[in-house]
Every structure is written in structure tokens, then in C-alpha cells.
Amino acid sequence: MKQVMTAAVLACGLWVGAACAQDGQDAADAAKTQALLASLHFQTGDIALEKAGAHLHVQPGFRYLGHDDTRRVLEDLWGNPPDDDVLGLLVPDAAPLNSEHGWAVVVTFSDDGFVSDEDAAKINYADLLKEMQTSTHDDNADRKKEGYPTMELAGWAQPPSYDAVGKRLYWAKDFSVEGETAHTLNYDIRVLGREGYLSLNALSSIDDLGVVKQGMTQVLPMAEFDSGHRYADYKAGSDKLAAYGLAALIGGGVAAKAGLFGKLGLLLLGLKKFIIIGIAAIGAAIKKLFGGKGKGGGTVQ
To answer: Could you state, in order of their start, the residue ranges of all structural domains in the chain?
Structure first.
């Protein structure tokens, strides 16, 4: 009986020791997170995006992190692999980066060339959704092979809309992810310019759709190309023409050229970010959505 009690005491001691060690690690991680957040240099007002030939007019309610701080958030806080292509991060004041319902907008620029909007009025979004759902499902074998959970495209969280005057395209997708009760939201904005387009990608839980949708309505007009880099400045015959149109920009057809992570990266960033904040630090893949920077004179698909 004494031996049993001794074993039980030892087991209890080991359990308490492990729990204390875990508590100590959690406290250390929390302190590290707070130190990182306190060191970030948030900006407001007009932000020059020199690589894109554009400006971001940050409105009240949002703050902006530049390239270096954005990399620290994506890589050190959220566990993503290194990526030097990000321009910045828009962070809503009402949703801190380490909060349960935190969300942010990743800002990148693609210099694939001028994206023709001639197909804007011809896109059948119902058919496009079906194609995207099939593609998402078919990619699950590769996801499992790479150690990622499977996912299905449940539908539009917000159907695509195109502002032909402002040259802004926006839509949102609702994904179900293996092992996750809540669906994942990917909200996308593309601002078209002469040499390519700006991407503003918000990632969150679908439960926060209302908040994100309202926030992205504020974000939509913030990005603007500078004179000489605007959509209207395109010179046919001499400027580079992207080898795809708006349908491929929404559907991700061009992303296949970028390989597996090009197709999955932004989706998994949204998934892993919330796992990191809510449960544990698990890495995520963020890559440029589109690849293949061809020369001018491409054909519009």
C-alpha cells in the first residue's frame, strides 16, 4: 500500500512538475509576444508603396506596419516561413494582433503586367464557383501528402464585385477545414494598375465575417496607384500584358503555375493564424499567390 501511495505521489509530482513547466513556457511565450507587439512601429496617414508605385491612405480605425515589422508579425508571431515579398500589414484598431478575434490585411504587389478587364461582364460566377470547388477538392490529396488538413470551398462569403471605374475587384470565400469547427474566411481585394495589381488579403474566422466585411469596405478605397502607374496609363503594344483576365484572378487559375504552396498559401495563413492565437504556435505557408512573370504581349484568357 505504501509503495502504491509512493508511486501515486511520484506520479502526481511529475504531473505537477510538467504542468508547472508548461505554465512557465506559456508565461515565457506570452512575455515574448508582448515584447514583440510593444516593439512594432505602427504608422498612419499616407503610406508610400514605392515598389508598387502606389500609396495607401490609411484611414482612422486602422494602422499600418511596414515591410520589416510585417515580416516579424508573419514570421515571428504567426510562425510563417520567411517571405521578403510582403509590402505591409493593415491592422484594425479594434482587433489587436494577439486577440482571439484579431485579423489583419496582408498587402502585396504583383508585377505580372496589365490585367485586362474585358471579360468582366462575361464572367459566370456560379460556374466559376463550381470550378473552384472542384479544384479545391482535387487538391486535397496534395494537401494531405504535404501534412496539411483537407479543405473544401463551401461557397462565396461575398460574391465577386468589380468597380469598373475605380478598377477594384473584391470577393470573399468560405472554406471548411478538416478538424476545424468554424469555417475560414478569405476576403480578397485586387486594385488594378498599369504594371500589375495590389493585393489586400484579409484572413479570419467566418464567424467574424460581419466585422471583416465592414472593415474591408473601409479598406477598399485606401489603395491608389500614383500618376504614371495607374490603369489608365497603360500603353498597349509597349507595356507588359498579363496572361490572364479577371476570371483567373478570382479563380486562381494562374496560381497553378506557382505550385502547391502558391495554391494553398493564403488559405493556410488564415487557418494557422487562428490556431496560433487560440491554441499553439503552428507554422503556416504564405507565398505569392501568382507566379510566372512573362514578357509583354501575352494573351488575355
So the answer is: 41-278
Q: Which of 231, 211, 33, 246 is nearest to 105 (CA)?
A: 211
Tell me: the pLDDT tens digits for 83-101? 788 999 999 998 878 777 8
Residue 92 CB coordination number (10 Å) = 22
User: How would you list the strands of the sheet with 104-110, edge to edge?
Assistant: 62-65, 88-92, 104-110, 197-205, 184-192, 168-177, 151-163
The strand pairing partners of 90, in sequence order, are 64, 105
Q: Grid coordinates representing 229?
A: 502607374
CA distances in angstroms from 8 to 4, 19, 20, listed in the order given: 6, 16, 18
d(CA 243, CA 105): 26
pTM of the model: 0.77
pLDDT value at position 261?
39
Topology at the third CATH level for domain 41-278 = Jelly Rolls (2.60.120)
Buried b (16+ CB within 10 A) or exposed e, 237-250: eeebbbbbbbbbbb
